[in-house]
Amino acid sequence: MTSSPEDPACEVAHGHAPVPAMPGRVLVAVFASPVADFLLRYARDTGYRTVLVEPDAERAKPMLDAAEVVLDGMRSEAGGPADVVITDHHRPELGPVLRDALATDVRWVGVLGNPRHPAPHVPALTELGVAPDEIARVHRPVGLNIGSRAPAEIAIATLAGLIADRNGRPGGFEF
């Protein structure tokens, strides 16, 4: 079967054309974690510029090859408008990092976590004086609901949800 010259996506999918550059696509994974490692690697494969924000230099070391840029805090140099995913909601730096992310030109920000448990970012941001409308910008849960459990599955679900959102699609099997 041959690809269709009038469908550039088909040409790419069949390897007859290079993957086009995706200008402006930046994925920021906050906090070094197994999910962040997969998320950054997969994001790079899908055309994102990848950034890891990890305040602890020791925790960042094992992930230096997963991200194109490693920062010790969230700031505009992350390359916004970025998609920001907090990959560990148990870290004490959660509130300040989220507050700083919301103060930049992020396109989308979300926190991984089980929706059946209380959202730890809400009290953390409230305590820091972040306005309720800004707190409401934080998505939780994130990604497509595929029942993911393992870090690689969580990363795939998260990245698929971000790609669907960027492309104005609902995700899932509806086209």
- CATH level-four homologous superfamily name: NAD(P)-binding Rossmann-like Domain
Calculate the terminal CA-CA distance, rounded to whole Å.
Answer: 23 Å
How are the strands of the biggest sheet laid out side by side? Answer: 3-2-1-4-5-6
Low-confidence regions: none
List the helices and strands and how they pair.
Elements: H1 8-13, E1 26-30, H2 34-45, E2 49-53, H3 57-60, E3 69-71, E4 83-86, H4 94-102, E5 108-111, H5 121-127, H6 132-135, E6 138-139, H7 151-166
Parallel strand pairs: 1-2, 1-4, 2-3, 4-5, 5-6
Helix pairs in contact: 2-7, 4-5
Descriptive report:
This protein is α/β, with parallel strands linked by helices and 175 residues long. The chain has one domain: Rossmann fold (3-Layer(aba) Sandwich), CATH 3.40.50.720. The chain is 33% helix and 13% strand. The chain is built from seven helices and six strands; from the N terminus they run αβαβαββαβααβα. It has a six-stranded parallel β-sheet with strand order 3-2-1-4-5-6, with helices on both faces. β1, α2 (34-45) and β2 form a beta-alpha-beta unit. α2 (34-45) packs across α7 and α4 packs across α5. The longest helix is centred in the last third of the chain and has 16 residues, at 151-166. It is globular.
